[in-house]
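User: Can you recover a sequence for this backbone? Please restate the input before giving your answer.

Assistant: Of course. Working from this structure:
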């Protein structure tokens, strides 16, 4: 098991699950957790846990998940991937590592997990397009976003998530990142990936095949379902989520997202089309912008301006190494600081 700093919760988990290895990246938290190890080993690097695992579930937020995820693939492990940013930042490197070692990536994000399941209805070359669904976040029906507060942006109507992911939902940068993730994970062209607003969050994504058949994965919005599927794949086991009652749901609605209101979608498609280091720049600039917004240093709409501005100034490297990818990420974060005024 791995954590960054929440050693108290980790201590409870250690008592319940008795992990053989524990990694805590923050030094002060690592000192606190030491008395609770119960015979297990302790490390400061999550990559150290990969060797003993059968399935590695990467739930780290942001580009910090790249190294552990890549280490899992290089070791030939099944990677249950909740960290979309690692594919956004270094999709070609991740997929090449998986091909080289025979490792499998099973996505945990509800949208990509849905696509992963629906893809089993046909062959990759038979896919016409993939449709990623979006709840629309807290501002779906709000037109003026100039005075959005941090508190308002953190109120998601459907999901209970961490601050970074919740803000990404409010800006729809989560969908921008998911477009890039889907492009690499499913070997698609950028123009094969679409986003549709679906406020009920019942249809988690759809795959359309060449014959016009559309295969959708439906279920109540409960992350335990995709997490369990990723951990038990290729088996299905009895789940913990409630069964979906379609009669009670009544109707499912869909609508096209506004790229004028959420220009993040255009930026995600641009990163998917350009490839190279542009994904790392998109993600790095967005992470920096969200951090500044949460710290109340910039207004909500500045997030879009910052990411677009940083991407405009970037000269992408077409086939970057891991080092070049990391450098692009660092450059984007530094460049974003120029947009705070």
């Amino acid at each position: 098991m791995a954590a960054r700093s929440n050693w108290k919760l980790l201590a409870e988990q250690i008592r319940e699950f008795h992990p053989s290895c524990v990694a805590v990246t923050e030094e002060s938290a690592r000192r606190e957790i030491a008395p609770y190890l119960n015979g297990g080993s302790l490390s400061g690097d999550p990559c150290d846990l990969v060797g003993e695992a059968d399935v590695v579930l990467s739930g780290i937020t942001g580009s910090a998940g790249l190294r552990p995820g890549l280490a899992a693939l290089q070791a030939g492990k099944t990677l249950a991937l909740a960290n979309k940013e690692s594919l956004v930042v270094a999709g070609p490197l991740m997929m090449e590592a998986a091909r080289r070692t025979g490792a499998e990536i099973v996505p945990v994000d509800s949208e990509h997990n849905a696509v992963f399941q629906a893809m089993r209805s046909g062959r990759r070359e038979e896919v016409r397009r993939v449709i990623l669904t979006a709840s629309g976040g807290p501002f779906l029906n709000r037109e003026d976003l100039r005075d959005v507060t941090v508190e308002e942006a953190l109120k998601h109507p459907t999901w209970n998530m961490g601050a970074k992911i919740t803000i990404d939902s409010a800006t729809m940068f989560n969908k921008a990142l998911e477009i890039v993730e889907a492009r690499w994970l499913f070997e698609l062209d950028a123009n094969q990936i679409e986003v549709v607003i679906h406020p009920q969050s019942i249809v988690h994504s759809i795959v359309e095949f060449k014959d016009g058949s559309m295969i959708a994965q439906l279920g109540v919005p409960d992350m335990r379902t995709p997490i369990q599927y990723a951990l038990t794949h290729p088996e299905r086991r009895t789940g913990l989520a409630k069964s979906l009652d379609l009669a009670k749901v009544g109707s499912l609605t869909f609508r096209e997202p506004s790229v004028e209101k959420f220009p993040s979608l255009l930026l995600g498609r641009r990163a998917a089309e350009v490839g190279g280091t542009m994904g790392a720049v998109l993600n790095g600039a967005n992470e920096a912008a969200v951090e500044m917004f949460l710290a109340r240093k910039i207004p909500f709409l500045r997030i879009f301006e910052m990411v677009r501005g940083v991407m405009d100034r970037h000269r992408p490297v077409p086939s970057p190494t891991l080092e070049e990818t990391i450098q692009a990420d660092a450059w984007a974060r530094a460049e974003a600081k120029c947009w705070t005024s």
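That completes the design. Residues 84-101 form the longest helix (18 residues).
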